[in-house]
Structure formats: C-alpha cells, structure tokens
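Please annotate this fold before class:
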Amino acid sequence: MSDFSAWASAHQSRFEETLKRLLPQPDIMPQRLHAAMRYSVLDGGKRVRPLLAFAAGELAGAPLERVEIAAAAVEIIHAYSLVHDDMPCMDDDVLRRGKPTCHVEYDEATALLVGDALQSLAFQLLSEHLLNEDAATQLQMVRLLAVASGSRGMGGGQAIDLDSVGKQLTLPELEQMHIHKTGALIRCAILLGAHCGHLTQAQFDQLDRYGKCIGLAFQVVDDILDSEADTATLGKTAGKDADNDKPTYVTLLGVSAAKKMAAELHGQAIEALTDLGAPAQRLRELADFIVMRKF
C-alpha cells in the first residue's frame, strides 16, 4: 500500500499542476469569474476520479499526457456539480472541502456562472486536445462524458435526489438514483482513461463492470461516513443528508448492513478485474482505498 500511496501522491501533485494550467488564469477577463472557477476546482478533494482514469489509462497503455486531459474534464464536471449542489436552491450547504462553498465565498450568481463555465470548459478540453488517433473514438469520449453528466447521468440523479426528500425509497430505487448521481461520472472517468489507450471490447466491458460496482460502493461509503464522521474529517457538513430527511443507505439499511453492502460491492469490483491480470493492480488498490475510507 505504501507503493500505492506514493503512486497516488505523485499523480495528485502532477494533476494539480495540470488543473492550474488548464483553468483560465485569474488575471484574464472576467477576472472574478475565473478566480471563482479556480477557487472551486483547485486544492480540494482526493481526486478519486482522476486517479481512476490514470489507473485505467495505465492498463490501456495510454500516454499520461492524454489521460491528464480526460481526467481534468471529468474532475471539472465533478467540481461544477458540487458548486451547483451546494447552492441554496439545492442542498444549501456552506462548507465544501474544508472551505466556504463557492456561493458563500463569492455570491449565488457567480456560483451559477462558475458551474456553467466549468461544464463548457470540460467539453472544450475533450475536443481541442488529441486523445486518441481515431477520431471516432475521441467523439465517443465526448459522448460518454455528455451522457454521464446529463439527465441520464449525474444531472438526472440529482433531480431524483431532490425529488426523494422526505420519501422512503426501496433499495432498488436508491441504487438507481446513485447509479446516476454518483456512479455515472466514476464509470466515465475509468472509461475515458482507457479510451486514451487501446483495449479489446471484452476488456472495456470488464472495466465498465468494475466501474458500476465501485461507483455504487463509493456512495454507500459516503453515506456511512456522513453518519459516523465529523465535519472536520469530512471537509463538509456532517449529517447533512439526515438533517434534510434524504434517503441514504444508512437510513434504509442501518450502518452494519450498509458496511456489508460496501464490502460485497468491493468484492464484485475486484472480481470484475480478474481477467485483466497484473496491469489492473492500481484499480484494485483504488477499490480498496474507496471502500476502506475511515471505517
């Protein structure tokens, strides 16, 4: 695991520099908007989605310079979603990644524009850099991110989430919501990283299965941490979902059963990588990292 820690740390540090380079510089007009975009993206989070893209890219023999662009596009979409989710019209939160949310640090109008501009930037990056020699493959990458972030992915999942406040969902209904809200972008990160290189269709199918399992596990663990960890540890307001009467895996199953579910999903994710052998080791280690966070 120490080798994995060194690998992750090196990629996180390099990726931060990549984001600083790809985001609009704060001295370019409109300066306030660009400063707010950088505030919302830089110096935050564990960069799990980019790390998944890097691991999948390594498996596919992809050049790191290409995977960095794909990873940046996914992370920028993720950051935009957090900016919008935190706004008063959505989850109304004041803390994200240990610092004031964008609309608190700036204002609501700026936060709205930050999300809009970040979403556009993500697709600009995917379209203006060469990520695969085959143009059809690169166009497929654009489509993957569009679907993962739109009404059939993250955006749709958030809509279901908002509509579920105060309701008792069944386990399949809760899974369906989070397959879209959280899982879609995680799966997309893995597939985009792999598309920067070359794999067989069978290998892509195995990666997609891994992504579905680990994406769902990520949310189950998030729900557990939201119920057990404190605000300082999480970097965001602890217990927010319970306070807002939102259905979670903990409220539906209880902590013990939720932890069992996370372990089962972890096992299924690892099993999906069986035929990919040693080159998939980083993906296995990331599955461990995601599921074994803080509990």
User: Anything to note?
Assistant: The two ends are 17 Å apart (CA to CA). The beta strands are 95-96, 99-100. DSSP finds 15 helices and two strands in the chain.
